[in-house]
Amino acid sequence: MRRKWFRCNCKVATIRTKIQSVDINQPGVIRENDEFILSCVARGSPSMTFRWFKDGTFVNLTFTRHKWIKLIKDPHVTDQYTALLAVGTARKYDEGKFTCQVEDFNIQQCKSKFVKVKRPPLVKIEPMSLTVRKGQNFTVKCVTLEGNGGIIGKYTYSWTKNKELLPVRTDSERYETLYPAGTILQVFGIEKDVHFSCLVQDSLTSSERSIQVHFLDKQVHPCSNETKYGLIWPETAPDTEYVQECPKDYSGIISRKCMLRDGKTPAWGAPDFSQCTGEFLRKVYEQFQFNYRTKSVKESAELRGIHQDVKRETFAFCSNLMCWNVFV
């Protein structure tokens, strides 16, 4: 379906009708998941109307849950009104030029404000889970995928062990920065389960990724290393899960549990692919979720219904057949 664009046909305003300002409650860059509120102040008659556009497209609030609009009459200034557009949970798709259109007596005025949204660093940790034996050394790598530094400065990297900040060097651990954007943690033997987290920060945002390391006693037999469903499943302690990333072109994680049959025999269970999301369908869904399109109410509802049907049927199909080629 062809996309329609709206044009703000602005004319020279009369003295009676005029946009005073378009402002935002948070100066500078907006962090993803934060709230921001745009305000459009104008003077005119009580019949004056306000409309909001983003990058030339009408902001449709029919289905969205994280945006709202409100009109306020100024009690102190005659004929002055303020239209608010709030975004409760900012996403990268909310970045762009927001335009307030005011119409009064068939005269239109437009004024815009550009909003910049900063995502937290996209962090990858390898491996995502691990089973080790007594005296075994191992390393964990943590990298930012978009390169070195965000909008403001470089990223800084640190590690925690069981939620406590880890010094750069201890008797059993040490870490260093990797060029151009990452860090590597070296661990020299453990004798019990431990939880490590990698914290990546800049002056505005932060992200954290964790790994659970399971300690395996000599007397305990693990699930053996195997290749199945097109993926590698390394040796894993019983009653624990091995976690890894979804296959190429999918986002999310896969988990597979090592179970004890009859309470004593380790065996791999079926992998859980339900958190894998196809990139193409995810982007399509997000476009409609954020409502910066000109679809009719009926068309948007139908597309949402189709997405939910595909998602439900695919998950049910893959749960029964243990397939890994998940489409949503």
How many domain modules?
3
Taking the alpha carbons of the first and last residues, their distance comes to 22 Å
The protein's oligomeric status is: single chain
Judging from the principal axes of the Cα atoms, what is the shape?
elongated
Q: Which residue ranges are poorly predicted, with pLDDT under 50 across at least 5 consecutive positions?
A: 1-6, 148-153, 316-328
CATH superfamily of the largest domain: Immunoglobulins
**Helix fraction bin:** 10-25%
Structural class: mainly beta
Percentage of β-strand residues: 35-45%
Number of helices: 2
Largest sheet properties? 5 strands, mixed
Radius of gyration: 26 Å
How many β-strand stretches?
Answer: 26
In CATH, the architecture of the largest domain is Sandwich
Instruction: Compute the average pLDDT.
Output: 82
Determine the CATH topology of the largest domain. Immunoglobulin-like
SSE pattern? EEEEEEEEEEEEEEEEEEEEEEEEEEHH
Strands of the widest sheet, in order across it, are 12-19-18-14-15
CATH C-level label of the largest domain: Mainly Beta
Report on this structure.
The chain has 328 residues and is mainly beta. It has 3 domains: 18-118, Immunoglobulins (Immunoglobulin-like, Sandwich), CATH 2.60.40; 120-219, Immunoglobulin-like (Sandwich); 222-295 and 302-322, GPCR, family 2, extracellular hormone receptor domain (Hormone receptor fold, Irregular). It is built from 2 helices and 26 strands. It has helices at 279-289, 297-321, and strands spanning 18-24, 30-31, 36-43, 49-54, 57-58, 67-73, 80-87, 96-104, 107-115, 117-118, 123-126, 129-133, 137-144, 156-161, 164-165, 173-178, 182-188, 194-201, 206-216, 226-228, 231-233, 240-245, 250-251, 253-261, 265-268, 277-278. The strands form 8 sheets. It has a 5-stranded mixed beta sheet, with no helix packed on it. Strands 1-3-7-6 form a 4-stranded antiparallel beta sheet, with no helix packed on it. A 4-stranded antiparallel beta sheet has the order 5-4-8-9, with no helix packed on it. Strand 6 and strand 7 (80-87) form a beta hairpin. It is elongated. The chain starts with 17 loop residues before the first strand and ends in a 7-residue tail after the last helix. Mean pLDDT is 82; it is low at 1-6, 148-153 and 316-328. This is Ig-like domain-containing protein. Residues 17-116, 121-212 form the Ig-like domain. GO terms for molecular function: G protein-coupled receptor activity. Residues 223-280 form the G-protein coupled receptors family 2 profile domain. InterPro entries: Adhesion_GPCR (IPR051587), GPCR_2_extracell_dom_sf (IPR036445), GPCR_2_extracellular_dom (IPR001879), Ig-like_dom (IPR007110), Ig-like_dom_sf (IPR036179), Ig-like_fold (IPR013783), Ig_sub (IPR003599).
